[in-house]
Each structure stands twice: as C-alpha cells, then as structure tokens.
Fold this sequence. Notes:
This protein is an alpha+beta fold. Helices cover 18% and strands 37% of the residues.
Amino acid sequence: MIHLWIPKFFIIVQALISYAYCDGIWREDLSNRINIGAPTDGYHRVQLNCNDNSISVAVVTENDFDGVIYTRGSFYGRSEKCFQEGRFGQTDYYFDFEFDECNVKKKDKNTYTVTLVIQNDKELIMPGDSAFKLVCDFRSREKTLEAGLQVTEKRVTAVISLADADPGGKDLPKHLQHSVTSRNRTAVFTREDIKPKLQRRDEL
C-alpha cells in the first residue's frame, strides 16, 4: 500500500506546485498588461480653489447620487464642513474649510493636501467609488524679467489627482492619477480628463 501511495502523493504535490507557478505567471501578466479604468460614476466635475486661508471644493454629481462626500478621516465625525450626504435631485455640493480643518495635511511650510472621497453608498466603500487628492502649493518661485532681473513671484498652484478611495490603499501610480494642474489657484477635474495611458513596468 505504501509504495502505491507515495507516487500519488508526489503527483499531487507536483500538481499544486505547477498550479501555483502558473497562477503567479497569470497574475504577473495581468498586472503588466491590463489597466483597470478609473471610476467615473457619481460625479461630473470637481473644482478646487486654493484661497489664502482656506480650501474650497465644488463637486457636481449625477442626478441620482445618493451617497456621501467627505474628506478622508471625516467619515465618522461627520462635521458639516467636511461631510455631506447626497440628496436625490441635488447635484451641487460645496465645501470650504481652513488649513487646520477636515484633516488637511501640511506637507511643508507652503503646501497643503487633503483627499476628497465620493462614496456612492452611505455606509460602505465599494468598487467604483472615487477619491481625489487635492493640493494647494503656495511656494514662491524665481522669475527672470526681460532686463535680466530676477524677482520672487508668488504663484498658487492647484492640483487635482485621482486617489484610491480605500483608506488603506496605496498611492496610485502616476499614470493612473490623471493629474490636472493649474497655476492660477483654481483647478477643475472632469471625467473627460481620464484618458487611457500605457502602464509603465517601473511604476508597478
């Protein structure tokens, strides 16, 4: 009985090893070749305004949006400044909060970031939900005039990029962020800004 059992055992082990190997190749191949599109459900437009002392965000949603919109970290607190519930028929939602509110992060002395989440269900984050990383950069830059003189120019740069709606998710690779940058304080992101881009292997 033993000598019959041993070959069967090795056949099973070999089959499991082969399955794991093929599964690894399949997963690697998919990660290198397939680009899952960014979510476009729930919203039409997101506008960021970088004010001197606050951040303003205007969101235009679809007519049937029945979820919630909030800054990351504000879901359970549900402060009126940082959290809004969708209402059927309402499409315009507006936020205005200072740099020390709504979990705004200070990246350095002059740069502030916050993540806005558009969640289609009132309680659960689901596939298809959207998130946007909002950046206000107040750093001064050197500008050379025609006479050769250099002056310090304060330009406010606004940036909107797609982010992972999952609070435990990692930063998206650059080719999936579809960033929109403006140097006049106001940036606008629409679904048309999501364009297919080839995935680079060094960003995996």
